[in-house]
Amino acid sequence: MQLTIRPETPADYRPAEVLTREAFWNLYQPGCNEHHYLHQLRASPAYLPELGYVAELEGELVGHIAYSRTKIVRADGSEFPTITFGPVCAAPDHRARGIGSALIRRSLRAAKDLGHRAAVILGDPRYYGRFGFHGCERFGLTLTDGKYLPGLMALELEPGALTGVSGRFLEGFDYVPGGEELAAFDAGFPAKEKGFTESQRDFQVIYNLGYQVIEHGFM
Which fold has domain 3-171? Predict the structure, then answer.
């Protein structure tokens, strides 16, 4: 079957939310909130619709990726614009077939062509390293609390773009997960049972690996 990667259209919005919910359900937590995040992101100024892509197999939607504006805030308060992708997903019955990789590579090429200079993401370094992402300690980039995290990674779309750029990574869209709003939104989808999975345990290990670098700490 031929995989087709094409730009997302408004007609894809709801199907992409359904797909995202299926892909993330019980993956990182009981249930998920990624479909709600995606829905809310589209109403935010941070949303970059020109970088949204879908993957199709014989007309069936099997993958999706979304992008948002983010930034690095330097110590002096100046800002360096970046972009972030996510959620990115493939249909559960089509995983490990290169769909996510195809979406990431296609959209990153488009981002570069549009003049974006660097992408910063939060994800599993065991996966995203294949696309050229490096741990942000290499660039002096931290979370908002000043900590490094193995899952905080950056890719220079323009060679050398992050040289001399160090600071704290800030999301362009302030999403607060959980609560009644998520429950009400999720009620519009088919009922699914929440549960614990080993992938949730794995995610918590990576999520809790944040650390600070103490200058001359071994002296």
Answer: Aminopeptidase (3.40.630)
